[in-house]
Write the structure tokens for this entry.
Amino acid sequence: MLPAAKQAACHSNAFHDAGTSTTAMGTAATGGVPAAFRGAVLWRPKMTAKKLLRITGAQIVQLDEPPSVLDGTDLWVADGRVLALLPTGTAAPMEGPVETLAFQKALVIPGLINCHSHSASSLLRGCIGGVPLDLFVLDAQARRAPKPLRQVRVAVMLQATEMLRRGVTATVDHFRHAGLPTVEAVSAVFSAYQEVGLRAAVAPMYEDRRYTDSLPIDQAELPPGVRKRWFGSHPPAPENYFAMMEEIATEWRRRDRLQLLLGVDGPQRCTPHLLELTGDFAARHGIGLHTHVLEAKTQALVAPPEHGGSFVAYLDRFGLIGPSSSLAHFVWCTARDIEIAAERRVNVVKQPGEQSPAR
Ligand SMILES: [Zn+2]
């Protein structure tokens, strides 16, 4: 079996949503099918398929170097996996019942990747609207409430289904579950993605500082209600997080389409002790960190002066900046942050509509 074809597993739901000019195939991680395989049968595990799908009449995007668009090509899928790219009208490359999806003015693209999502929030949409991040978090207590496992599962199913319908076939789920995710809750998340068939990297969220302690504010000025809610809460010790992660890693670290990432929250919400343990865990298990970095201006104001005001330099000290890690938002970054991120080839995740301030 050819490695490229092996990775190009696709989810048939993505194709059936192709009533408009855009649809999706495979996964973006494949980078498309290499040019050398065009016009060829990509893999042949057996001579008869349970179901063959032919997509015809669409242009097919190839993410080669340079990218290209194929015309006059049929895309064949056998039992859910991309099988062949053949000139339009060529006979089926394998035995089996054929379903045809015929398009006009459609584009077939590799599956999209949503690099930053919070499945737990998919059931909380519309609860709070139109306020800056810090005010949102101070008010959004429901995000930190423990949820029944069924609710955890439904939230993932909802998010995953919505993404598949929009051509997204892989995601990073920065999973929030109360103050400390449990083995049962994280397992429920993995199981739900497995059931849907979406590729997912799950990064359980955790921080060991109170949110109010991470803000550049005079806490005495906070409204009494906010103080009462936050000052009474004490995050569990970091050792509890890593005990949970050890257990999860045993079962889910890398499994089929799933993988585990560290998900400790933004560096300003973590003590150096927590980040040290995070670096140790990352090194021992060979996994990366997914975290929020410089999402709001208030975070830029608390960037560590001993690291030249660079959160990226600070995280780098713990061995957490590299190709396996990803930094979500990165809006209020400094020139030094950008320089180190580029040097270390860490992934930076931008959200649609999000702009870095002009400097
Ligand atoms: Zn986020």
In short: The chain has two domains: 3-110, 113-349. The CA atoms of residues 255 and 359 lie 43 Å apart. Residues 116, 118, 174, 292, 328 surround zinc ion (CB under 6 Å). The chain is about 30% helix and 20% strand.
